[in-house]
Design goal:
about 750 residues; eight-stranded parallel sheet; hydrolase; six-stranded mixed sheet; single chain; globular; beta-glucosidase; Glyco_hydro_3_N_sf; alpha/beta; binds beta-D-glucopyranose; beta-glucosidase activity
Length: about 750
C-alpha cells in the first residue's frame, strides 16, 4: 500500500545529478564558459554576480532594463511563468544573451504544501521525504523556477530558535540522511531536466547554533563539535550533488560566514572539493559592516568576494563596489572571473544555455490559473503528512476515535488555513489548505456530528500580535476574536457539554516558528492553556492535537490530555491527514527528531550529549551529580520517541561476533514483534556508544535506523551492518578515525528505551 504513490521514485533517485546527453551546447562546458567569459566586459561579469529580489525595491520595468543591459544574473521571489518570461526575453535581448535563472525558497512544497521540515523528519521515511522534494521540484519547475534555497539542514538543539521548524531536528545522522534525499528529490537524476531544480543547501554553516536561540546571533563552537555534529549535513547535501550553497548570516567564532575564508575556501572548496555556486544570504554582504569587520560597503564587497561569495543576494553592493575595487587593483579580475565561472556553470548545468526557456515553456502553454486544483498533488501531500505525526500519549486507547456520536472540535488552530501551511510555504494558498475542521467533517460525513468553537485566540499578548501581524506579511496572519476570553471558553464548554469527546487543536501560529521568531518560553500561550484547563475540568475524554514549529514544554498538557498528537504544521492536506490518524485510517508511525524538554530552563537538551564525570542517574537522586534540583532532569519526550495504535516488542541484541576487525562487517540484529491488534509501522533505531576513547564521546549516537511495517502478531528480524566507518569520529586533532576498544550497540524504538550489547574494535 505504502509504495503505491512512490512508484518510480527509487529509479529516479538512484543516480546522482548529471547533465543529460544532448542538452549541452555544442562545445564542452569548460571551453564554452571560457569562451563566453573572454567576451564579457567587467560590467557584464559583475552583473552576473547580482541576484535580485523581485519586490518593492525595483519595478519590473527597471529590472528588465537592468537585465537587458547585462547587469543582473538571476532573480528570486517571482514565481510564475508570465512574471519570469519577460525577464528571460530581456536577457535574450542583452549583448551576450546570457540566460537568467529564477530562484525561490521552495522549502516544503511549492503549490502543494507538505509538512514543515520537523514534520518531514518525524516520518523517518526517506521515500516519503523524497516524494515531497520531487513533487516540490516538479511544481516549482512548472512555475519556471530553476533553483531553490534549500534544503535547510541546520542542526538545531535550541527550540527557542524560530527556524527550528524549517530544519530536520537535532541529530546529525538523521539530518544528513534527509539532506541527501532532499537534494536528490529536487535535482532528480538530471538537474538540467525541465522538471528538476537545483538545490542550494543552507545555511552554511552552523546557523542553528546561534547563541540563546536568538536569530542571526553569534555562533561560538569547538572544532570537534562543528566537525562531528554540525557540519556533516551540509557535506551530505553536497555529496549528493547539491549545485549551490547559501552562506549563513551568523559569525563563527568571531568571523562572519560571509567573510570567512576558512569556511568558504579551506573547508568548502579545498577540503570538501565543492565546485558549485555560493550565494550570500539576504543582504549579508553589507551586514559585514554591522558585524564590525568592514568599515563600509566597499570593504564588505572586497571581503565577501575574496572569501568566495559568488552571488550577492539582494544588496547592491557588488554592483556598486566591485568595478572600483577591480580598477584600483584591490580585487584581482581573476577573482571576479572565478565567481562568474561558477554562475555560468550553474546556468549551463541547469540546461539554460541549451534552452533559456527550458522551465518557462511557451506562453501558449502557461496555466490559465496558477492555483488550479489540477496543479496540486493532494494525494501525495496527504500520504506524506500522515506519516509526519507523532503520537505522544494515548491513555486508555482514547485514540483512534469512532466515526460516531458527537465530537467537539475546539481551539484557535482547528480552523486556521494559514497556519496549516507552516512558515516558508512558498506559493501555497491558504484557501486551498484543508483545516482540521474540514478534515474531520469530510471524514465522518453524516456518521457523526462535529461541533466547532474557537475557544481561545492563539495569543492575546499585544506585543506578540504586533510581531505576528507585522507588515512583511501581505495578509493578517493571526485574526483576533474580539470576544472576551471567558466568552470564548464558554462557547467551547457548550460544545463540549454536548459531545462524547473533545478534540482541542492548540499550539503556535505559524509565524511564531519562523525566521526572526525567537521565543523565551516554550509554553503554549496563556489563553489556550486556560481553554485546556477548562476543557479538562469537564471530565470528557480530551484529545490534544498540537500544531507548532518547535518542541514545546508540555508537562501540564501531557497530564491534562488523554491523548496527545504532535502534528507540527502539516500542509495543504493537513486536515485530512490528521483525521486519518485520529480515526485510525492510518496508524501513526512518526518519531520525534528532536528532544522535548520539560521547560525552557533545560535548554539545550539533546540526547547525544557527551559523557561527563558526574552523570545524573534517573531514580537515584544524589548530591553533586549533574541535575536540576527543582525539576526532573530527564526530557519530557526523548529523541526518537513516538507511539502507535499497536504495540511492539524488541528482542535482545544479537551480535554476529564480539569483535570487529577493521575492514570486516559486524551484524547487529533484533527481532521486532507487533504485539498488538493492529497492523503498524515503527522505526527501529541503532545507537552506538564508544566506551573509552581519547576524548569524551556522546552517551549515544544514532548510526542507523529502519522503518518496518508489521501486521498484527507479525515478527521480523532487523539486521544492521556495522563497520569501522560507523565508529569513526573527529578527535581533538580533527583526525577522523575509529579508536580500538569497546563499543555499546543499543537498539530500540526510541533513544531511551534500548537493548544493549557490547563488542570490541580490534
Ligand atoms: C533567509 C534565507 C532565505 C532568504 C531569501 C533570508 O532572510 O535567511 O533562508 O533563503 O531570506 O528569501
Amino acid at each position: 500500500m505504502k509504495k503505491l504513490y512512490l512508484l518510480g521514485m527509487a529509479a529516479a533517485l538512484a543516480c546522482p545529478y548529471t547533465l543529460a546527453e544532448g542538452t549541452a551546447p555544442a562545445q564542452n562546458k569548460e571551453a564554452f564558459i571560457s569562451d563566453l567569459l573572454s567576451r564579457m566586459t567587467l560590467d557584464e561579469k559583475i552583473g552576473q554576480l547580482r541576484l535580485i529580489s523581485i519586490g518593492p525595491d525595483m519595478t519590473h520595468e527597471q529590472i528588465r532594463k537592468e537585465i537587458a543591459a547585462g547587469r543582473i544574473g538571476g532573480t528570486f521571489n517571482s514565481v510564475t511563468r508570465p512574471e519570469n518570461r519577460p525577464m528571460q526575453d530581456a536577457a535574450m535581448n542583452s549583448r551576450l544573451k546570457i540566460p537568467m535563472f529564477f530562484a525561490y525558497d521552495v522549502i516544503h512544497g511549492q503549490r502543494t504544501i507538505f509538512p514543515i521540515g520537523l514534520g518531514l523528519a518525524s516520518s523517518w521515511d526517506m521515500d516519503a521525504i523524497a516524494v515531497s522534494a520531487r513533487t516540490a521540484a516538479r511544481e516549482a519547475a512548472a512555475d519556471s523556477l530553476d533553483m531553490t534555497f534549500g534544503p535547510m539542514v541546520d542542526i538545531s538543539r535550541d527550540p527557542r530558535w524560530g527556524r527550528s521548524s524549517e530544519g530536520f531536528g537535532e541529530d546529525t545522522y538523521l539530518v544528513s540522511r534527509i539532506a541527501k534525499v532532499m537534494v536528490q528529490g529536487y535535482q532528480g537524476k538530471d538537474v538540467s531536466a525541465p522538471d528538476s531544480i537545483m538545490a542550494a543547501v543552507k545555511h552554511f554553516a552552523l546557523y542553528g547554533g546561534v547563541e540563546g536561540g536568538r536569530d542571526y546571533n553569534t555562533v561560538d563552537m569547538s572544532p570537534t563539535r562543528m566537525y562531528q555534529d554540525y557540519l556533516p549535513p551540509y557535506r551530505a547535501a553536497l555529496d549528493a550533488g547539491a549545485g549551490g550553497v547559501m552562506v549563513a548570516l551568523n559569525s563563527i567564532n568571531g568571523v562572519p560566514a560571509t567573510s570567512n575564508t576558512w569556511l568558504m575556501q579551506d573547508l568548502l572548496r579545498r577540503d570538501w572539493g565543492f565546485k558549485g555556486l555560493t550565494v550570500s544570504d539576504h543582504g549579508a554582504i553589507l551586514e559585514l559592516v554591522k558585524h564590525g569587520v568592514a568599515r563600509d560597503g566597499r570593504e564588505a564587497a572586497k571581503l565577501a568576494i575574496r572569501a568566495g561569495i559568488d552571488l550577492s543576494m539582494n544588496d547592491m553592493v557588488y554592483g556598486k563596489e566591485l568595478p572600483g575595487l577591480v580598477k584600483a587593483g584591490e580585487v584581482p579580475e581573476s577573482q571576479i572571473d572565478s565567481a562568474v565561472r561558477e554562475v555560468l556553470a550553474t546556468k549551463y548545468d541547469l540546461g539554460l544555455f541549451a534552452d533559456p526557456y527550458r522551465r518557462l515553456g511557451k506562453a501558449a502553454d502557461d496555466p490559465q490559473d496558477v492555483n488550479a486544483e489540477s496543479r496540486l498533488h493532494r494525494q501525495d501531500a496527504r500520504a506524506v503528512a500522515r506519516r509526519s505525526m507523532v503520537l505522544l500519549k494515548n491513555a486508555k486507547d482514547t485514540l483512534p476515535l469512532k466515526k460516531a456520536g458527537t465530537i467537539a472540535l475546539v481551539g484557535p488552530l482547528a480552523d486556521a488555513p494559514i497556519d496549516m501551511m507552516g512558515s516558508w510555504s512558498a506559493a501555497g494558498q491558504p484557501t486551498q489548505s484543508i483545516t482540521l475542521l474540514r478534515g474531520l467533517r469530510d471524514a465522518v460525513g453524516n456518521q457523526a456530528q462535529v461541533l466547532y468553537a474557537k475557544g481561545a485566540n492563539v495569543t492575546n499578548d499585544r506585543n506578540s500580535l504586533a510581531f505576528l501581524n507585522r507588515i512583511i506579511f501581505d495578509r493578517t496572519e493571526v485574526e483576533v476574536d474580539p470576544r472576551t476570553p471567558q466568552a470564548m471558553i464558554d462557547e467551547a464548554l457548550k460544545a463540549a457539554a454536548n459531545a462524547d469527546v473533545i478534540v482541542a487543536a492548540v499550539g503556535e501560529s505559524r509565524g511564531m516558528s519562523h525566521e526572526s521568531a525567537s521565543r523565551t518560553t516554550l509554553d503554549i500561550p496563556a489563553p489556550q492553556r486556560a481553554l485546556l484547563t477548562a476543557l479538562r475540568a469537564t471530565g470528557k475524554p480530551l484529545v490534544i492535537v498540537l500544531m507548532n514549529g518547535r518542541p514545546l514544554s508540555l508537562v501540564r498538557e501531557t497530564e491534562q490530555a488523554d491523548a496527545l498528537l504532535e502534528t507540527w504544521f502539516t500542509g495543504t492536506e493537513g486536515g485530512h491527514a490528521i483525521a486519518d490518524v485520529l480515526f485510525g485510517d492510518y496508524n501513526p508511525s512518526g518519531k520525534l527528531p528532536v528532544t522535548f524538554p520539560r521547560s525552557v530552563g533545560q535548554v539545550p537538551m539533546y540526547y547525544s550529549h557527551l559523557t561527563i564525570g558526574r552523570p545524573f542517574t534517573p531514580g537515584k537522586a544524589g548530591n553533586y551529580t549533574s541535575q536540576y534540583f527543582d525539576e526532573d532532569t530527564t526530557p519530557l519526550f526523548p529523541f526518537g520517541y513516538g507511539l502507535s495504535y499497536t504495540t511492539f516488542d524488541v528482542s535482545d541484541v544479537h551480535l554476529s561476533s564480539a569483535r570487529l576487525k577493521r575492514g570486516d562487517t559486524l551484524k547487529a540484529s533484533v527481532t521486532v514483534r507487533n504485539t498488538g491488534k493492529r497492523d503498524g509501522e515503527t522505526v527501529v533505531q541503532l545507537y552506538l556508544h564508544d566506551v573509552a576513547a581519547s576524548m569524551a564521546r556522546p552517551i549515544k549516537e544514532l548510526k542507523n535506523f529502519e522503518k518496518v511495517f508489521l501486521k498484527a502478531g507479525e515478527r521480523k528480524e532487523v539486521t544492521f551492518n556495522l563497520t569501522e566507518e560507523d565508529l569513526k569520529f573527529y578527535n581533538t586533532q580533527l583526525q577522523y578515525a575509529a579508536e580500538a576498544g569497546d563499543f555499546d550497540v543499543q537498539i530500540g524504538l526510541d533513544s531511551q528505551d534500548v537493548k544493549q550489547a557490547r563488542f570490541e574494535l580490534l
